[in-house]
Write a structure and sequence with these properties.
The protein is α/β, with parallel strands linked by helices. It contains nine helices and 18 strands. Helix content is 22%, strand content 23%. The strands form four sheets. Strands 10-11-9-12-13-14 form a six-stranded mixed beta sheet, with helices on both faces.
Length: 421
């Protein structure tokens, strides 16, 4: 089954909890804290894999989770890190944020890798909090939850030549004649239900990758027929090959329909280089029509995909145009952007109803990793937020006693007279 669009949810592994433990060994007085740290949760990656050809596997497995980190134990034993998860996708996969469909990245090259959900940090054991003023801390941090995100995945096949044409124009027959691909061929419209890829081998070890999409009909840009669902697969091609049936009542009108629908779908395709192959020349009447209509088609070649006549000439013409497009891309390729360093504030405070909402990676992480059933852990959180300057900022914004301060999914009550505030 060919699937080129799917929704997926990814969740990083949760970090392991730190351990609260004290050393107890014979003949060793005042052993002290020895709780180990929790392990880090596993990350989730998307990896472009040339062995994949569609998103079907992800369509039926829509939620991927990184492995959780192990919990810390006594004797300063740390929990093990969770295993990372790598999700294989075909090269040419486009990742968009599901909430607003904004572009995240395009995975074009095999082995290209992208981190999409980071695993949570492991909580610190009580041995990490021992100091000269608190030699026996009786609390440990919880593991941080992993990141959670939803993405919309779209596959745009990576091909150099896109084959377009009306239904039954002979696109699949041409692909079968030019490559080793074996698309379904029959004498009824919409035989091709999903895109087919083929690799054409030319002399001197040259190759061309061709993509054949289902037939385009008038109104395809509004969703009629099957072509609209798969037109995205020719957006990355360097050259378009128009297969025109010489047996059509008006081959010029057929060309106009194809060009009009492509332009309405994406203005990028308007100026894409193209070659016209007038097909079914094995019929004598069609050969005579070619002589009358060839002037209407620039770069036109007369072929018979069924017999293979003229197919090699088309491939050579396509190779020349693809090479020209490659050279133009190399000359006009922009220089890689310089790395930018952006300052990120430790927290951001905004008014929310009768209270305030605090956002910020460090602040939210500190709250999520606090065990609120332990008073000593709460006091440690208070000292941590004080050092960050959170309470000072809240006072400047006019926070009053009893107001609700929301941090992440935790609600706290503000009290201005807390020690150290």
């Amino acid at each position: 089954m060919f699937v080129d669009r799917t929704r997926i949810r990814v969740t990083g592994g949760s970090g392991g909890n730190g351990c609260c433990s004290f050393r107890r060994e014979k003949y060793v007085p005042r052993g002290g804290p020895d709780g180990g740290d929790g392990g880090k949760g596993g990350d989730v990656y998307f990896v472009a894999d040339a062995r994949c050809s569609s998103l079907a596997d992800l369509h039926y497995h829509s939620h991927w989770k990184g492995e959780a980190g192990g919990h810390g134990t006594g004797s300063d034993c740390h929990g093990k890190n969770g295993k990372d998860v790598q999700i294989s996708v075909p090269p040419g996969t486009v990742l968009r944020c599901y909430s607003d469909h904004s572009l995240v990245v395009e995975l074009l090259e095999p082995a290209q890798r992208l981190l999409v959900a980071r695993g949570g940090q492991g909580g610190k054991g009580n041995a990490r909090f021992a100091n000269s003023t608190n030699r026996a801390p009786r609390f440990a941090e919880l593991g941080e939850p992993g990141e959670d995100a939803e993405y919309l995945l779209e596959l745009k096949l990576i091909a150099e030549v896109g084959i377009v044409g009306l239904p039954n124009a002979g696109k699949s027959t041409f692909l079968a004649a030019a490559t080793a691909a074996k698309p379904k061929i029959a004498d009824y419209p919409f035989t091709t239900l999903y895109p087919n890829l083929g690799v054409a081998h030319l002399s001197r070890y040259r190759t061309l990758i061709l993509a054949d999409i289902p037939g385009i009909i008038e109104g395809a840009a509004e969703g009629k027929g099957l072509g609209h669902d798969f037109l995205r697969h020719i957006e990355r091609t360097k050259v378009l090959l128009f297969i025109i049936d010489l047996g059509d009542q008006d081959p010029t009108l057929s060309r106009h329909i194809l060009e009009s629908e492509l332009a309405r779908y994406s203005p990028v395709l308007v100026d894409r280089p193209r070659v016209f192959a007038l097909n079914k020349a094995d019929i004598p009447e069609n050969r005579e029509r070619f002589q009358r209509t060839v002037a209407e088609f620039p770069n036109a070649l007369c072929i018979s995909a069924a017999t293979g006549n003229g197919v090699q000439d088309v491939l050579e013409r396509l190779w020349e145009m693809v090479e020209s497009a490659r050279q133009s891309e190399m000359i006009g390729a922009p220089a890689p952007p310089a790395k930018e360093y952006v300052y990120e504030a430790p927290f951001v405070i905004e008014k929310a109803g009768d209270g305030f909402r605090v956002a910020g990676k460090a602040v939210v992480r500190a709250v999520r990793m606090t065990n609120f059933d332990n008073e000593e852990a709460i006091r440690h959180l208070h000292r941590k937020l004080t050092k960050m300057g959170l309470f000072h900022s809240l006072r400047r914004l006019g926070a009053q006693d009893g107001q609700t301060i929301t941090i992440g999914d935790i609600e706290l009550v503000y009290q201005a007279d807390q020690p150290g505030d």
